Amino acid sequence: MSAETSEADEIDDQFQAPRSSFWAKFSDHGVELRGAEPVPVEKRTDTRYVNVFTVFATSMTSLLPIGIGSATTLGFGMSLRDAALMIVFLQFLFAVPAAYIITIAPLTGMRQMIQSRYCFGKYCNVLTSVVVTLTVGGFAVTGSINGAQCLSAVRPGTLPVEAAIAIIMVASLAIGFMGYRAMHLFTRWAWIPTLIAIVILVGAAGDQLWQQKPVAARTSAQEYMGMVAFAAGNMVTWSNVAGDYACYMPPTAPRLRLALYCLFGIALPFSLLMVLGAAIGGAVFTIPAWGAAYKAGGIGAVIGNILIARLGDFGRFVLVILGLSVLGTCGRDVYTVSFNLTAVAPILRRVPRIVLSVVATAVIIAVAIPASRSFVTSVVAFLSIIGYYAGASVTCFLTEYLYFRKADPNSFDPKIWNDGRALPTGLSALVSVLIAWAFIIPSMQADWYTGPIAEKTGDLGFEFAVVVAFLAYVPIRSLEIKVRGRL
Questions:
Q1: Contact of 193 with 321, CB cutoff 8 Å
Q2: pLDDT at 184 over 90
Q3: Using CA atoms in the order 352, 358, 362, 368, what is the torsion angle rounded to 10 degrees?
């Protein structure tokens, strides 16, 4: 056993399965009951490393990025060319932190929100856990709305969007409910029908996508700056959950391969489908039938109009497949939220994870239904704001791991994962994030607020989040270590 893993070998498995025979039956049928507890080395046996690629690629190969991509031309008013260039570059750039962070999980056996405690502490980490839970739940909301709009468009007037959201989330619950192995098994194959359906969609819409809405000439880069925070909201946020999908892999897992699987699993399908969404969004108001469909049922209704007008009943079948393509996305998000809830409220460790999955699903449905009525505005505001916070929190975590802990996974002592006194206080990270927000607020730009700096320069919220958090964290954390005499 390498030195990297020797310390982890010395601890016992801290997970205690529910004693009730009722819950034991679920475990016997393959349902994952383990909560936030670190996974001991002997149980890190998943050597199918390509699972990292398939779990992300399948969940990204769906309507979610198409709907988000449409906001670049519909919400930001960008040209397709400019949107495509920024999407591809920014998505790959902002996926790099997640690609690195996922390689830490096999070395520690810890889920991402537990790793975060070694930077934010047990109690200050609650704030990060709340934001990440809202973030992941927000992606489930967005995905379920996209899918519901498609299902509703199969036979307009027969299935309300609200009912379709409930159908999608209940089906997604089955995936998130089963847990790690079932989710990886589902995502290993679920991308195939979705990819075929998307290729058919491109074929049906391709000869009309050139009809892009004319865009006024730009005189400065100011109006493009909002895309940075928007793209960061898509990608950087995965840095806060990436480890959840590799914590059952052994410490000997090939780090470069895992990083590349994560990078291309997240960024490649998301970028390509965002560009497709941008193309559809840019053509919505130049094609009367698409414009009418968009006003009636959002981007999902536009996709329905494209398929049904060109392919008839076969188009309806393809539309159903596209509508259900978000199951991998929403199932993944239900799974992640069920763990993060225990980090938000540690007392919930006593509640079986599968119960938390049901609660998470119910809340997502309750939020998605009203959000579906103003989709584009909701998506732009949501992704931009979480991008700001993710920039600051991920910067603090990477600075802690790379600078203060010298990228040593053994410094994440699994014996103290739930010991608030032994862990860092988290005040350094919390203060750094708050200082960053003092600069983010005057430099952010949204439909409901534009700061004085943003009025002159465009949206610089994400840039300030990263730079200020780093500059604040290094001296404050150094002082904390000097006072405490330890990490």
A1: yes
A2: no
A3: 110
Q: d(Cα 105, Cα 412) in Å, to the nearest integer?
A: 11
CA–CA distance, 187 with 368 (Å, rounded to integer): 23
**Alpha carbons within 13 A on the beta-carbon side of 362:** 6
Q: How confident is the model at residue 218 (pLDDT cuts 50, 70, 90)?
A: low
For the chain, how long is the longest CA-to-CA vector?
71
Rounded Cα–Cα distance for residues 324 and 361 (Å): 16
Distances (CA, A) of 46 to 338, 430, 436: 21, 35, 39
Picking from 70, 88, 68, 67, the residue whose alpha carbon sits closest to that of residue 78 is 70
Could you report the per-residue pLDDT of 229-255, keeping only the tens digit for each? 888 877 898 898 899 889 999 999 999
The closest alpha carbon to 306, from 191, 161, 209, belongs to 209
Count Cα atoms within 13 angstroms, Cβ side, for 285.
10
What is the spatial distance between Cα 141 and Cα 134, in angstroms, rounded to a whole number? 10
Q: Angle between the 80-101 and 63-74 helix axes, to the nearest 10 degrees? A: 130
Q: Which two tokens stand for residue 436?
A: 């960053």
- Which residue in 133, 94, 30, 51 sits closest to 367, CA to CA? 133
Query: Which residues, in sequence order, are bridge partners of residue 454?
Result: none
HSE-up of residue 92 (Cα within 13 Å, Cβ side): 9
Q: What is the pLDDT of residues 40-70, one digit of tens each?
A: 999 899 999 999 999 899 889 988 789 889 9
| pTM as predicted | 0.86
Which letter does DSSP use for residue 10 in this model? Answer: T
The pair of three-digit structure tokens given for residue 333, joined into one six-digit string: 């998000």
User: Strands 449-450 and 445-446: what pairing?
Assistant: antiparallel
- pLDDT band per the 50, 70, 90 thresholds, residue 129: confident
Helix (H, G, I), strand (E, B) or coil at 450: strand
> How many Cβ atoms sit within 10 Å of the Cβ of residue 479?
11
Mean pLDDT across 211-227:
74
- Is the CB of residue 111 less than 8 Å from the CB of residue 243? yes
Query: Which residues lie below 8 Å from residue 283, measured CB to CB, with a gap of 6+?
Result: 208, 209, 210, 211, 212, 213, 290
Enumerate the β-bridge partners of residue 450: 445
Q: What are the beta bridge partners of residue 445?
A: 450
CB 95 within 8 A of CB 267: yes
Measuring CA to CA, how many Å separate 115 from each of 15, 250, 276, 408, 481?
17, 17, 36, 13, 18
CB 125 within 8 A of CB 113: yes
Question: If you write DSSP's letter for every residue of 230-289 in order, what string do you get?
Answer: HHHHHHGGGGGTGGGGTTTS-TTS-HHHHHHHHHHHHHHHHHHHHHHHHHHHHHGGGSHH
Residue type, 337: V
SS3 call for 455: helix
Are 177 and 339 in contact by the 8 Å Cβ rule? The answer is no
CA–CA gap between residue 163 and residue 181 (Å, rounded): 29
